[in-house]
Amino acid sequence: MIIDSHVHFWKYNKQRDTWITDEMKILQQDYLPEHLSLTLKRTGVDACVAIHADQSELETHFLVELAKTHPVIKGVVGWVDFRDERIEKRLHYFSQYPIIKGWRHIAQSEPNDFLLGKDFQRGIKALQAYNYTFDILIYHYQLKAAIELVSKFPDQKFVLDHCGKPDIKNKNINDWKANIKELAKHPNVYCKVSGLFTEADWKDWRAADFYPYLEVIFSSFGVNRLLFGSDWPVVLLSGMYVQWKSLLEKFTDKLDEESRENIFGKNAIAFYAL
User: Fold this and answer.
1) Which of 105, 168, 181, 226 could form a disulfide with 200 if both were Cys (CB 3.0 to 4.6 A apart)?
2) Which CATH superfamily is domain 3-272 in?
3) What is each CA distance from 103 to 141, 156, 210, 242, 267, in whole angstroms?
4) Are 142 and 104 in contact (CB under 8 A)?
5) Dist. CA 116–CA 35, nearest whole Å
6) Residue ranges covered by each domain of the chain
7) In this predicted model, what pLDDT tens digit does every residue of 202-252 receive, in sequence order?
């Protein structure tokens, strides 16, 4: 099975979705499973994991409801306020929905030390009772905090979204590379091979621009902790779904079949318990 570990769905709302600026006009519309299904079919992708785009419990419910009517969604990563003193009660409430596999916070928009806050870490600690995963969404300059976070919770399953968003556009790699290698030393951390198109120059990139970053990710995490993801529809800002998947297929074509199966599906199934 080929699993896309990172897609978003939304009904566009200008007041709510303020992160979608006018330079992202292509995203200023509805993106729902029926808009993705043909693309998945054409590219041979069997199923997906839906990740929240808005930070609200309403969004979590929205994704749960979508999954009920669209069997292509095999898992949901929702949002709940990790800093809420009632976090354990909220997780208990949401545990009635087995489609919810994990949680995420848009930490890329927070101060660099956000992941190290006591309130936030109390929320992370509460995940383990439910075997929930946590998606780490940060920029490359926030990786040090992520390293410290994962070291404090060795039994918690984490996945780094979008390879930690390296600065591909300006070809900065050294600091990111050192931090990725450090992060990958923690066996409880996985990494999504996703989101790199939008870290490059949206209108002027070549496949070769991504190869140095992919080499770091593959050598650091190995083939058993990497998850293919598209970041659809955000990927459309810089390219097409099929372009990203084809680039990854070409990059991995020298790997054996089992390794490719792991990256394109089995690792996601294992990580999210799909």
Assistant:
1) 168
2) Metal-dependent hydrolases (3.20.20.140)
3) 22, 12, 28, 27, 18
4) no
5) 38
6) 3-272
7) 999 999 999 999 999 999 999 999 999 999 999 999 999 999 999 999 999
Q: How far apart are CA 272 and CA 245, in angstroms?
A: 21
Q: Which parts of the chain register pLDDT below 70?
A: none
- How many residues belong to the chain? 274
Q: Which amino acid is at 79?
A: W
Q: How many helices (H) and strands (E) does the chain have?
A: 10, 8
pTM for the model: 0.97
Residues 48 and 31 sit within 8 Å (Cβ to Cβ):
no
As a whole number of angstroms, the distance between CA 24 and CA 85 comes to 36
The one-letter amino acid code at 272 reads Y
Is residue 69 classed as helix, strand or coil in its secondary structure?
helix
23 in helix, strand or coil?
helix
Q: Is the backbone peptide bond immediately before 233 cis, with ω within 30 degrees of 0?
A: yes
Helices 143-152 and 118-127: angle between axes, nearest 10 degrees: 50
Distance CA 177, CA 172 (A): 9
